[in-house]
Amino acid sequence: MSHFNQLPEFQKEFIKFSKKYGSLAEDLKKLERLIDTAPTGLGKNFTIIHHSLNVEIVKVRLACKSLRNRSMRVVYAYHNNTVTFVYIELYFKRDKSNEDKSRIINYLKEHS
Q: What is the DSSP string of the chain?
């Protein structure tokens, strides 16, 4: 059974966006069901941005119903030895062009 966790920064971003986009919680649950069966994703909407023996960092497009299926981005870590997913970042592509690389580097320093 998979475990899903969130960094505090992700939680703040999720709360902020949830107020604007009411379907976000449901959209994230759909993503969880998908990555529970395919941890690093399927197709072109998933990009592995870091790969090591124990952890993979994946960026995925998250279709948001409230945005009329335009996508947000979710960055998560998949720890294959413990089957644990950790949400690292959530952002809207219109507001921010790329993931926070320093947040990912800090996460990897603490968890690799």
A: --EEEE-HHHHHHHHHHHHH-TTHHHHHHHHHHHHHHSTT-SSTTEEEEEE-SSEEEEEEEEE-GGGTT-EEEEEEEEETTTTEEEEEEEEETTT-SS--HHHHHHHHHHH-
State pLDDT tens for residues 70-94: 789 999 999 988 989 999 999 988 8
Report the DSSP pairing between strands 3-6 and 84-92: parallel
Q: Can you tell me the distance from the alpha carbon of 34 to that of 39, in angstroms, rounded to the nearest whole number?
A: 8
> HSE-up of 66 (CA within 13 Å, CB side)?
14
State the Cα angle at 32 between 105 and 80, rounded to 5°. 50
Contacts of 103 (CB under 8 A, 6+ apart): 7, 9, 88, 89
pTM of the prediction? Answer: 0.94
**Domain 3-111 in this protein, CATH class:** alpha beta
**Would you kindly state where each structural domain of the chain is located, as residue ranges?**
3-111
